[in-house]
Amino acid sequence: xxxxxxxxxxxxxxxxxxxxxxxxxxxxxxxxxxxxxxxxxxxxxxxxxxxxxxxxxxxxxxxxxxxxxxxxxxxxxxxxxxxxxxxxxxxxxxxxxxxxxxxxxxxxxxxxxxxxxxxxxxxxxxxxxxxxxxxxxxxxxxxxxxxxxxxxxxxxxxxxxxxxxxxxxxxxxxxxxxxxxxxxxxxxxxxxxxxxxxxxxxxxxxxxxxxxxxxxxxxxxxxxxxxxxxxxxxxxxxxxxxxxxxxxxxxxxxxxxxxxxxxxxxxxxxxxxxxxxxxxxxxxxxxxxxxxxxxxxxxxxxxxxxxxxxxxxxxxxxxxxxxxxxxxxxxxxxxxxxxxxxxxxxxxxxxxxxx
Length: 355
What we know:
Elements: H1 27-30, H2 34-53, H3 66-98, H4 127-135, H5 139-142, E1 150-154, H6 160-172, E2 176-178, H7 186-195, E3 200-207, E4 210-218, E5 224-233, E6 251-255, H8 260-270, E7 283-290, E8 293-303, E9 309-313, E10 317-326, E11 337-340, H9 343-346
Parallel strand pairs: 1-2, 1-3, 6-7
Antiparallel strand pairs: 3-4, 4-5, 5-10, 7-8, 8-9, 8-10, 10-11
């Protein structure tokens, strides 16, 4: 058997190995790129040294131990507070050094001072507003023809916290009487209140043993307002409280009720108290409206000197949120509502307020 030799070309004698690492340069390029590689290595070494000297910043939330995470968070918070105080003191010294030449203080941007203008904002000199005040349901009270007489009751089967809240509310409002509901419907209670010359009916509702709602009905012709009640603090729960309130008629302060709706709510609250406050008692009932939340506080004040006044809270305290305003007395089925809160429409813009 004859064996023929097959000639093999030089380029097919051995297969070239593929360059697995594309970053590595061939031997022919090594001579040209020797300096560049050394420089890259030096840069990497410098970065590693810098990383060793300055550890990377980390988030507190990455700490898995709960106690250590809380401790680190409190330390960071304390450091931020110190920096803020130092910056404030520095600015104060600069202002004292400059004196009259100091620049005016920057007004911080808040939701209140960026409020969207409401067309129904009340102008005290408006003739239409004055006419409405002279002819509305509260005109008899503001003209001195009637004196407030308030009945306070609860929902069916009230619990102890709601009962105590009603009793303390009766000590804040002069000439207020607490009666238990005993399962009577409000449509039967209102005619009895009118027959006995009551000017207000206050109903405190509860949920899960906690007061959560208030119906404020002006008698005999209305209107009726429904509020959500939150953050109720009784007298025993208030720190550094004063002694119990006296029987003196308190002063009433109404803040930030600027729109037509807010003006009506302010008059509704004002008609709860007598118009002749007894300044000897030094007691003040405050309804402060802020972002459509009405904060109620009851204080006693004392003049320490010509410049300083001491204030002591007496309690109770609570927060109200208006849900609806109804014309006439309470009528859940056929009542005509003047205003109803629609959360998704009215609360869409945070800078627009209703009161």
